[in-house]
Design goal:
By secondary structure, the chain is an all-alpha fold. It has 14 helices and no strands. The N terminus is likely disordered.
Length: 412
Amino acid sequence: MVPRRAHPVGRRIRARLGPGAAVAGQGLVALGLNSTTSFAAGGILGSITSSFERYPGLLVLVPAAIGLRGNIFGSFGNRISTAIHTGTFRLTTRRDSVLGQNVLAAIVLTAAMSLILALVAAVVCTAFDLGQGVRLLDLATISIAGGMLASTLVLTAALGLAAGAVRFGWDLDTVNAPLVSTLGDVLTLPALWLATYLLGIPVVTGLVASLLIVGAAATLVAGARSRLDQLRRIVRESLPVLAVAGTVSATAGVVLERRLDAFAALPALLVLVPAHLSSAGALGGILSGRLASKLALGLTRPARFPDHAARRDIALVAALALPVYAFNALGAQVTASLLGQSGPGLAKMVAVSVLGGSIAVAFVVAVAYYGSLAADRLGVDPDSYGIPLVSSSVDLVGAFTLVAAMAVLGLT
């Protein structure tokens, strides 16, 4: 049997992408799953609006809490991927191993950052006058309890991906960021909602809040002063960038809330928002992970302009973006129709998604590339900095790109 020859266009695309073409299919599957579950996240978001009204500041906390899962466990996966590529990774339960120290670091950062995000949300609410009587203890209880619950499930999945990468040869840099982002979207919202049931119980609520706050602070101190070198380094390097990322994401929550009326007339566009933000962050996570691994292996060099190897990765991300954003539009339109919500029509939905997504991805590429290079030149781990820089900036910029695309098409 004569082998079927590839179409000339396909050959040109594969030649352009080089080795990245071999993992494009894995990336599309992961990104497609990421987008699909983001529609579910939009439905969950709409179903718990009464909780937002009951607890001022919770809506501001949501984008930062969702992003935290992706930031911590996306970076976790990137570090594990680099360790696999460099031959230093072993599947073991030893706490002083690469895997053990990364797991401990993820737990420490989850507890500490959940407390910090509660503080940030309280300050932001007060600064922007977004709610009367915002209670820090309530926000801390929801953030820490909900965050630890969601992170336990995401950590389990991240460990499964690491095992799959070793056993089946998956490209962890390509599949980790989209899938972790997916789980963060779906699990964080119900976890935060479940944590609200700890509130309003006389004596118990105050005691639980105090224990959670003290426990989170003690965990941070233990991690930052640990005798385990990698654990201590990850915590100390990650905490500043995660704090900045959380603050930016909380500010993005303010932006979305202030512009909520622009989406109210066409609710289908609101369904699109989680997928729009999540896809841009996942694409940037893919680029960040691949660049970090290549920097560690010496396959690309820090330079003002991307070299040939980096351009191949950028081309891979650009090639993945178009079908992903078209799929986002279709999925949001179908989801809105099933929920009985009005929209601008499929053609305009696709135009909004692709136009806004193109702008967002251009921004993400710049942040991922120069953020990774800056981390490398400053002597810190690009795996720990790349995804938080991308996801937090996308939370803020992504909302603006979507609104801008709506304005260009006359939908606002």
